[in-house]
Amino acid sequence: MASVSGPFSLAEQLATMLVPSPRNAGESPNWPLEVATAAITEVCKAFAEAGANLLFLRENTLRVDQAGVLEKWVARLTPIFNIIRFYEALPVLQIADENVIKANVAAILRSVQGCVVCASPDALATFVSQEGRISGSAALGISLPSSVFQEEQPGGTDTSAILNRLISDLRPALVTTAEDVPATADLKRLAVFSALARG
Prior knowledge:
single chain, about 200 residues, Rossmann fold, six-stranded parallel beta sheet, about 50% helix
């Protein structure tokens, strides 16, 4: 298993670090996205050749609210997913921005193909309550925020009940965490969520 930045996240890092020189001023304004896509494709190929069979693409930054951006993003993901699948590995798409995934989970699930899309329990619960079902060509994963592994606060949301319902209703392909599990995690809660994930 390996994790790499998604094309939009890497492109944003490149755009802030590298400024095209005046002699390259005529280059495409999409050069950071083009370079990011090519680099990620090569990195995923190297990981898959080395034996990785699960490759996470993590988008920390994703603005799909503008016209045409979702299509452009999917077009950049396609060659990356193709190379991962060529090596018989599984691409997993993880979007870190909770607001983006909540607002766009339906469109994302309908647009991307041949991967597992991981969304937070809250985003999935909101989506299911609005649409009643999950549809699309992507498999579904659940990405647990690290906060669920902290000691439960009185009067707080019962995340384990929400997760239990989502797992039994949606039968996700993958249950993972949105970030590293903190060292301060409540081990009893971690065991509860591990048991729920194993079903």
